[in-house]
Amino acid sequence: MDQANAEYSRLGEQVRDIGGHKELFIDEAPVSAMKNVRLTMNPPYQDHEPVFVPETPWEYRIHPYATVMKEGDTFRLWYLAYEWDPPPGVALPVTGTAEDASRFWKHTRGRLCYAESEDGVHWVRPNLGLVTFRGSKNNNILGPSEHDSVRQAGWNGGAVFKDPTAPQERRYKLWSEVTVADKRKSGLSSFYSADGLQWTPYDNNPIPGHCDCLNVVLWDERIQRYVGYARLWTADSHGDRYRAVRRLVSPDFLHWEDTGVVLEADAVDLAVPVNRRRQSRQIMDFHGNCVFKISSDVYLALPEIWWHWAANPFPTAGRDQEKMGGFPDKVDVQLASSRDGINWHRAGERCPFLRLGAPDAGDSRMIYAFTQPLRVGDELWIYYGGFRYGISENVALKRGAYFRARLRLDGFISADAPYAGGELVTKPLRFRGDQLALNADTSAGGAIRVQVQDECGEPIEGYGLSQADEVNGNSVRLVVTWGGRPNVGELAGRVVRLRFLMNGCKLYSFQFVENDSSVRR
Predict the structure, then answer these.
(1) What pLDDT, in 10s, does the model give residues 156-193?
(2) Same domain, 215 and 344
(3) What gap in Å lies between CA 277 and CA 327, rounded to an integer?
(4) Do the Cβ atoms of 79 and 65 come closer than 8 Å?
């Protein structure tokens, strides 16, 4: 709703027209008042056992610049693989020096590859017959189809998405950092495909501006534009280089406007009480963003944060591994939320959303989230890549593996009340539907009662606390009743407020649904 056309309640609060969409507690936007209730980030369960590891000659190393989709009963994986292909007499560099890193990258190439699974855990690599590798097309390589001797020649992974507005021949779209052989440098390039396997580049490549590694793009129905998030190098007031995230928008996937940096280290990050070597912004970097949408006005991101506060200044150019490190030299994943895709709030007081594994695990020093969680039943599956080495450690030994984390549906953030009780009152809203369904966990001894109020906060007859039945259980679909009656259809279209009285429970979301429907997105 445009601010100029916004509807306000009699008490001056903007009315939220939620229709039949879910209302999630990713922030206080739906909340008018809370008493003894706290918004809590809920990290997912991480298996820490890999579900995908490098196996083929063109997969000496797999990198976590990847996308997983679920289409029908098939899980589809697009991922970045590096081969190790030196001339005779060149040994694998394993000492971890800057010279070794340069030698390794000189003799490796990045390719976009593809795999499928029936259960999301066990994967097969189909023989696609698209790209020749060492004289054979019996492989799962998607591109590029030709290579040269340029360092890191090829595609640097990429983010794939299915465009709901495009014709079938351009239904799948891809953003990738691509090395341009004749210019000996890389740039952000876009592609389209009818099936997600055979890709055609757009004519506008490369897209202007900086990019680095994984870059995410999506269709944003709220603003009717394509929106992309690209990683870039920039510099602070000391001249020290660091990574941040910029945002781009386009009406047609051809002409892009750079709207500026939206994620970077800020004053809170720079105030972390650690023994940094020097005072500059260069104590942490945003190595990725993994932005996605879960409803019309809810944007989430899983940014990967590289911590290296005991670092030397980065070099002005090149990949001097000895200067890129610095204790602790590790990467984990935070959770950020936004209502417009521009202004971001990092949840959980910036504690990790995805945490590193045990010292001997394959995700013990670096983890990177994939671009889009998948709904599988009543769970969200979040795939991520991991390494047992830090960024500046032994680049040739970082072979990589992919892992899976599982989260309750819409379980990112919940409104939590202690057993002593608390209450939450929503802002005025208008809905459509016949029943109110909650995604909540009261465990055994907790409960929720819901009072429906008018826009001024007065109880509506028949929906007061004396009629409100206690909701007790742990489900993504708990239907609220008043005196045994679940129907609220007579209130649809009116401006109302919901008052939740809760004890010992977690409330993740609520949604008004039709009588014969399950909870919808």
Answers:
(1) 767 899 999 999 999 999 998 887 655 556 788 899 99
(2) yes
(3) 10
(4) yes
